[in-house]
Design a protein that fits this description.
The chain is α/β, with parallel strands linked by helices. Helix content is about 40%, strand content about 15%. The protein contains 8 helices and 7 strands. A 7-stranded mixed sheet has the order 3-2-1-4-5-7-6, sandwiched between helices.
Length: about 220
């Protein structure tokens, strides 16, 4: 248990949080969320928002994977704050999540994802959220997950740059085990930037699809 997790548990009991969930969630839904295991690969604009939404939903076990550190350029759209600057995202994000629910299990790994370690990292997780920034890394992870982890559902993000209509961001089933969220056309390389609202909207689509998949399992 981390120091911040212990501190948060001293401020609120598990029973208090359980009662709050009972008032908002049907019992079957709460139990499924509590027993779920979800991985988030990439803890930037998409991943940090996804992880916060899943923690607020009571997902019992979250694997958080990223090799990067928090930079000042992240503050416009990611969940981090000024005190997190310079810290590995895989360390900073669990601290944030513990302030939402300190009784969930947060496993974090500070490593660069490659084709060689995909299976080792993710094969035990029924659902993986792809939340990388670079198109080649996104394609690599989706390809390797579908090929190396035959039981894993993949929820990917693609196309959330700029200030276009958020209604253009949708969730589409592309293959039996692959869902893609976004408008699939706006890219930061087009010079339109990554802005908080559309990034968060795409992250919400991904988190919502994860919750739907858990309930369907």
């Amino acid at each position: 248990m981390t120091a911040i997790q212990e501190k948060m548990q001293a401020l609120i009991s598990k029973e208090e949080l359980e009662r709050a969930f009972d008032a908002r969630f049907p019992r079957e839904m709460k139990e499924k969320f509590s027993n779920a295991r979800v991985a988030v690969a990439g803890l930037g604009g998409l991943g940090s928002n996804i992880a916060v939404m899943l923690a607020r939903s009571g997902i019992g076990h979250l694997l958080l994977v990223d090799f990067d550190t928090v930079d000042v350029t992240n503050l416009n759209r990611q969940m981090y704050m000024i005190p997190h600057l310079g810290r590995p995202k895989a360390e900073a994000l669990p601290d944030i999540l513990c302030q939402i629910n300190p009784y969930l299990e947060y496993e974090s790994v500070c490593v660069k994802v490659t084709p060689e370690n995909v299976k080792q990292l993710f094969e035990m997780y029924p659902i993986v959220c792809e939340a990388f920034d670079k198109p080649d890394q996104k394609a690599m992870l989706v390809r390797e997950l579908l090929g190396q982890c035959p039981e894993t559902m993949v929820v990917s993000g693609n196309g959330m740059a700029g200030l276009g209509d958020t209604n253009d961001i949708q969730t589409r089933k592309m293959m039996r085990r692959l869902y893609v969220c976004g408008d699939q056309k706006t890219d930061v390389g087009n010079g339109i930037g990554l802005i908080a609202p559309r990034v968060a909207a795409c992250a919400a689509h991904q988190a919502n699809k994860v919750l739907q998949l858990i309930l369907q399992s």
